[in-house]
User: What shape does this take?
Amino acid sequence: MDGKFRIRSIRRCDALIIGAGGAGLRTAVEILVKRPEATILAVTKVSSPQKSHTTTAQGGFAAVNPNDPYDRPIYHMFDTWKGSDCSADQNVIKKVVESAWEQTLWLEHHGLHFTRNEEGRVSRRTFGGHTLDFGKGPSAFRAVFEADRTGKGIMDTVWGESLKRKVSFINQSIATELIIKDGRCLGAVIFEEPKGEFTAVLAKATIISTGGLGQVYKITTNCRQNTGDGLALVLREGLPVMDLEAVQFHPTGIVGPGILASEALRGEGGVLLNKNMERFMERYAPKAKDLAPRDVVSRSIEIEIREGRGVMSSDFNLPHVWLDIRHLSDYVHDVKLPEVTSFFSRFAGINPKKDLCPVRPTCHYQMGGIPTNEFGEAQRDADRVVPGLYAVGEAAAASLHGFNRLGTNSLVELFTMGKFVGDRVAEYIRESDDPGDLPKASGEKTFSLFSKYFGAKGAENLWEIRMAMRELMTDKVGVFRNEKDLDEAIEQLRELDERSEHIRMSGSSLLMNQELIDRWELDNLLTVAMVIAQCAKARRESRGAHSREDYPERKDEFNYHTLAYMQEYGKVTLGKRPIDMSIFEEKGEHSEYFDFMARRY
Assistant: This one.
């Protein structure tokens, strides 16, 4: 092995956090609340945790105030279950929803400045799929928020607490390999880009919180760094990912850049129009209309476009529909949602107070991820966990969201599950042994991978392959799917992977080599793209955000979570994990609302 590929240093800590966004840092803070003497090391791919994707979250998070005269946590549980297309885990739904208000108060007490109404109370807004009285009542005003930068407020809060509690950070670095011995995770191999060196971090507990995979698609709300790194990391270790076919497309991405136009705009009264100026959502969701769940609205927009009622953008040669927010008050534009409305002027060159806004579905969120139990312990299969390994945030699937996430449930999952995972890790590190010496084989997978990158010969262009993959996934594994397109996608992904073996690196340095990081990211993207496509092919039904044109109905035979393993490219092995039905099975009050049901809005 080339001498430059070796572990230069070994660091030790009680807990290693891979991904220092909101979920990872909320976990870190909770560990230190329970065990102040613990040592925590957080690795972030970006130059500062404040550049994590959490900061881009806009509209708010759902949390039912126990003193609310109209809303109840059980209504939020029902909406989440129904919104998931009856494929979320009910034990997780109950745990998250019942903790949401307590964690809301935790955030406020630690510095998050919630927007308040004229009476001084915390303001609330409504989002798609959130209702009162088990869907029989009107929309629920359930989401608390900090203007339109709620994610930034959360990130400021947990980052500040992390600094106060002496969390150590390794910035601009990536985890390339888990260190596993006798079935237990002992830490990870870290590539520190500013040093151009490999470091082994030995830890009693390792928490993966690396975020999403949105860069698999051509048009996405996700930041540049969301390349499915944590998912690829566990797949290379022979561990599974879960429900990757469940990819959420947000209905209102700004045409062109795909930047999110928050659902809060429709919560404040914005409406969707086709080229004939019709409020077309009345046809698809007669009651919920523009505030139907995201999968319903995204499919409706795509149908309008397919049937010729879309509008063609001359700037981007893309069909779209209109979001009309011209009638909203100046207070909404300038105070409640100033950043979101300004996106249209900055990125689309229009005045949203006077002009219609062009929008269409854009890749937004992965409902699946690394399978965990309700405590965030990563699973080897449906019945066994990997001691010492945890996952939280968008990289994880407990599963709160099932096959469709309701707006505002991502942030509430982020900080409630962060608290639960922190509790479990604090308990684990108190009882577990130190990792001991670094296992001899540590780093070999990483060094083999990086040697392949530097040793490749050929004239293939990394960015041409990456763009071809993104266009392929958008065209054939997007909002609507079918067997023919999925077969073609799988075959073309194999070809793109083969082409990637012939990308010649222009330099040989490990130090601050962005091309090297880009090449590693391409492998991760191709990996998760293949798993998404194969899982989508295997699930011959339509469920939530997974919509098969050739199998348009949900089928009881698919009432399970998909577990997928892939150690050799293209060879995906599938397994199953049961959907937890504990609320229904306990036969308590209102349990009848938690059986499988048809989704009508």
In short: Residues 452 and 501 are 8 Å apart (CA to CA). The domain at 248-364 is CATH 3.90.700.10 (Flavocytochrome C3; Chain A, domain 1). The mean pLDDT is 96. The two ends are 60 Å apart (CA to CA).
